[in-house]
Amino acid sequence: MKRSKNEFTIFISLIIVAAFVLVIVFTDCKGRLLVIQNNTTGYKTEFYLPDNQFSLGYMHSVMKTPAEEFFRVNDNDEIVLEKTVYESFGVGLPFLANEDDFEIKDGKFILSTNYIFKEINMIISPIPKHWLQIGDMKYELTDILKEKNSSITIYIIDISIIKYLSLLFTNQY
């Protein structure tokens, strides 16, 4: 009787492993990481993008109102700027837009765009309080990079199925 229980356990284990392999083979189960590289120090940090979307924001230095840019990652691992949301007009903020691309909703100006980037290069500092938002999580960029003033590059990388699954099972992101 013991032998048949062991055989049954092995059989069930093999079925589970086979099903797992089939799911991996027949589904597109890749993951993407948003990488922020500090060009001053070389330090890199990575964030898992579960829905291939993120936003970057800052406080406008003159108007003292928030501005936020919303991005998605397309199938070519390019970063697509879909819209900019801001609360006032002022220096450096969009003000000339086609009627089809611009709306006012809940007291905010929304400019729809479709700009594609392979990477985003920018300078961060504590004055405009640059932030990154992924889902419900908001991160101050100067805190992440542990630098007050930095030249950074933001780009996307695919991660392997093994790393992707380990991230899912360990809830690291």
How is this structure best described in words?
The chain is α+β, with helices and mostly antiparallel strands and 173 residues long. It contains three helices and eleven strands. The strands form two sheets. A seven-stranded antiparallel beta sheet has the order 6-7-5-4-3-9-10. The protein has a four-stranded antiparallel beta sheet with strand order 2-1-11-8. The model has no long low-confidence stretch (mean pLDDT 81).
Low-confidence stretches: none
Largest beta-sheet details? 7 strands, antiparallel
Number of strands: 11
Helical amount among residues, as a percent range?
Answer: 10-25%
From the alpha-carbon coordinates, what is the Rg to the nearest angstrom?
A: 22 Å
**Averaged pLDDT, please?**
81
Q: Span from first to last CA?
A: 45 Å
- Give, in spatial order, the strands making up the sheet with the most strands: 6-7-5-4-3-9-10
Structural class: alpha+beta
- The ordered string of helix (H) and strand (E) elements is HEEEEEEEEEEHEH
Strand content: 35-45%
Shape: elongated
Number of helices: 3
